[in-house]
Design a protein that fits this description.
The structure is a single chain. The protein has 101 residues and is α+β, with helices and mostly antiparallel strands. It contains 1 helix and 6 strands, in the order ββαββββ.
Length: 101
């Protein structure tokens, strides 16, 4: 059983002459155990389909218990809380693949 589901999807990037209504890859959902895995799954998907930052519309992370979106994975693989804020009032950073011990 997985604790989270990460949503993978894309759209056309108008800056590249692509129709924004046209997905550039097949959307899907993947069960993941944690935010580290959610980040890896998103980065793998982005790389596999050759998506740019303007194509990436996925990354929503839902709780399997409540269905609530609790986090989002940005294009660079960072995972941000959608329910908690940091001291500056910004979405709290939950995982940063560039700041590993």
């Amino acid at each position: 059983m997985f604790d989270y589901i990460v949503h993978l999807q894309s759209r056309g990037n108008p800056d590249l002459g692509q129709d924004p209504r046209d997905p550039q890859s097949p959307g899907r959902t993947v069960g993941v155990a944690d935010f580290v895995t959610a980040s890896r799954v998103c980065r793998d998907y982005i790389g596999r389909w050759g998506l740019g930052g303007g194509n990436w519309t996925g990354g929503a992370v839902s709780s399997t218990q409540t269905g609530e979106i609790v986090a989002r994975v940005s294009y660079n693989g960072r995972v941000w809380s959608t329910t908690e804020k940091d001291a500056n009032g910004e979405d709290k950073l939950l995982f940063d693949p560039f700041n590993l011990p």
